[in-house]
Write the structure tokens for this entry.
Amino acid sequence: MDRIDDAILGALQNDGRMSNKELAAQVGLAPSSCLDRVRRLHDRGVIRGYHAEVDPGAMKIGLQAFVFVRLTQHSRDFVESFRDHIVSLPEVVSVYHVAGQEDFVIHVAVRDANHLRNLTLDAFTTRPEVDRLNTAIVYEHIADSAWPNYAVSAL
């Protein structure tokens, strides 16, 4: 990774639909050199894909929440079984397996409070791995589309 790769990543994280010609001009490369660098970033797994940012309201998502889950055991079987279950749920936006008082933090997107209640009762509390859960409603979600790049030295 060098400064040009970092510039490419920054530009693509801000606009994944940018043409190669636009990207090359922005980072100061010939289009062919830029395309080679982007391909190498893909091949090395640095760029894993491109995603559309979607308005939750347009998808009839009226409520987001974080569900904090503590497991009854910390065995690999319990962790993997619970993780596999929650990632299969369509309401789950992201999953964090964490250290601390809770074992998982799960970001969910639902229609409304009743949907959230039913999801927690039916998909979480019925699981044998779950000891307890807490739920926090999200009032506002602000996400930066760009990750910091610590792989480039002396930035």
Q: What stands out?
A: Helices lie at 3-14, 20-27, 31-43, 76-87, 113-124. The longest strand covers residues 63-71. Residues 39 and 93 are 28 Å apart (CA to CA). The longest helix spans residues 31-43.
